[in-house]
Design goal:
This protein is α/β, with parallel strands linked by helices. The chain is built from 13 helices and 15 strands. The strands form four sheets. Strands 4-11-10-9-8-5-6-7 form an eight-stranded mixed β-sheet, sandwiched between helices. Bound molecules: pyridoxal-5'-phosphate.
Length: about 425
């Protein structure tokens, strides 16, 4: 959003000064309130966690899984049969291609990167760490923890724009065709963090089919929000596992998911799905660091969630809690900013975030001003590799955790800071050109 294109650009210097004086008074009023609000992380609120309270008393005495396996004991490195069946249905992937382990999909992504860096994928290719420079495509804006992980491994991140249909596929195809050091791409294909878009069928098929210079290219397919709908008829996501198989690239997708935002983040289940070759390589690798996962937790999740219908019923309860919070964000932004053209924001069909773009060059200053009023937003730039938002305009809003009245207050503050930044910028530009 450029200053010259804003309707307020046609205002006189005097009119702008008057508006800014009124906004300054509001700013002081909020300052005197001594607010302390946090809109930074997308984590479930206590009411959402309460939905899964029955988990805490499961599995009781019924601690054996299928085949009379005692879940209290060691073993079962790839998860219990019932949990694998649950996630096979959840991800629409054959059960033999599923591994359930640990409590965090991020840990599984980290494991896959470790395998690739140390041993090469499937243990037969050159380890990525021996290459002069490993590169990963990062659709942006994206998830800050993916970027932090790449940075920690010394992987060079190449941003590609995330469009409404998914990554800019023309750019992706050209880059991966020309550069064998580009070894993968981080994707959040459904209700992407933070823009909330779902990859279009065509984008998924192109990712599955595209020609890559690297023969060990991998799609890190982080399907964190597979069932996190906020509408009745969500657009379905094309099945990447099937698409890659059909395209003759069965080893390309590394699919991740978890129940972090279904049951308990930190005490949920994580899942990895991939080709038999990839899965075997992973099992071989992780069996050196663990004798087996927490099978009791897997069992209690299966008893609680049961099947995809059970998950769907449970997610409707989440939606009932989340929807008023998202609506509070939209209503407050609408009331405070209207259609003045000072910012534009998303109204996603699911997921955990509202993505807002403010005046180019303004995000860092707006977030700093809000912090000064006691309202924390995700740091500016965090949604881009190396924390570098080239337009300095992107602000991620995470409405799940705070209460509705806190959200309203926080978004009022955000809107005020957006207005202050925009009107002051317009005023300085006008003065400079006078
Ligand atoms: C896109 C995405 N992936 C992964 C995670 C974390 O998942 P987990 O708790 O399974 O590690 C999040 C959490 O916000 C996320 O937004």
């Amino acid at each position: 959003m450029n200053i010259e294109s804003m309707p307020a650009f046609s205002l006189s210097v005097e009119a702008l000064q008057k508006i800014i004086a009124a906004l300054d008074t509001d700013y002081q009023r909020y300052k005197n309130m001594g607010l302390s609000l946090d809109m930074t992380r997308g984590k479930p609120c206590a009411e959402q966690l309460d939905l899964s309270a029955p988990l805490l008393s499961l599995p009781g005495d019924a601690y054996c899984s299928m085949g009379n396996i005692d879940c209290r004991n060691y073993g079962g490195i790839d998860g219990i049969a019932e949990a694998k069946a649950l996630f096979a249905e959840y991800l629409s992937v054959p059960v033999e291609n599923i591994l359930v382990g640990g409590n965090a999909s991020l840990s599984l992504m980290h494991t896959e990167l470790t395998i690739a860096m140390l041993r090469g994928v499937q243990g037969v290719r050159q380890p990525w760490s021996r290459l002069p420079n490993v590169k990963m495509l990062c659709p942006s804006p994206g998830y800050d923890r993916h970027f932090a992980m790449c940075e920690a491994f010394g992987i060079e991140m190449l941003p590609v724009p995330l469009l409404d249909s998914g990554p800019d596929m023309d750019m992706v195809e050209q880059m991966v065709r020309e550069d064998a050091l580009i070894k993968g791409i981080f994707c959040v294909p459904k209700y992407s963090n933070p823009t909330g878009i779902t990859y279009a069928k065509e984008s998924v098929l192109r990712l599955a089919e595209m020609e890559t210079a690297a023969d060990d290219f991998r799609l890190f397919w982080d399907n964190a929000y597979a069932v996190h709908d906020l509408v009745d008829d969500p657009v379905p996501l094309e099945n990447i596992f099937d698409a890659c198989e059909k395209a003759g690239n069965p080893d390309r997708p590394l699919i991740f998911g978890s129940t972090s935002k279904i049951t308990f983040p930190g005490a949920g289940l994580a899942v990895f799905a991939s080709s038999t070759k990839n899965l075997n390589s992973t099992i071989e690798f992780i069996s050196k660091k663990s004798i087996g996962p927490d099978k009791l937790n897997q069992l209690r999740h299966v008893l609680f969630l049961q099947d995809r219908h059970g998950i769907s019923r449970h997610m409707k309860r989440h939606r009932a809690i989340l929807e008023p919070k998202f609506n509070a964000v939209y209503a407050t932004l609408g009331n405070c900013l209207g259609n003045a053209g000072l910012a534009k924001w998303t109204t996603p069909d699911g997921g955990y975030f509202v993505n807002l773009d403010t005046t180019a060059g303004g995000a860092a200053e707006v977030i700093k001003m809000a912090a000064d009023l006691g309202v924390a937003f995700t740091p500016a730039g965090a949604t881009y590799p190396y924390s570098h938002d080239p337009r300095n305009s992107n602000i991620r809003i995470a409405p799940s955790y705070p209460a509705v009245d806190e959200i309203e207050k926080a978004i009022e503050v955000l809107s005020l800071c957006i207005k202050l930044y925009a009107y002051n910028s317009i005023l300085s530009r006008k003065r400079a050109t006078e």
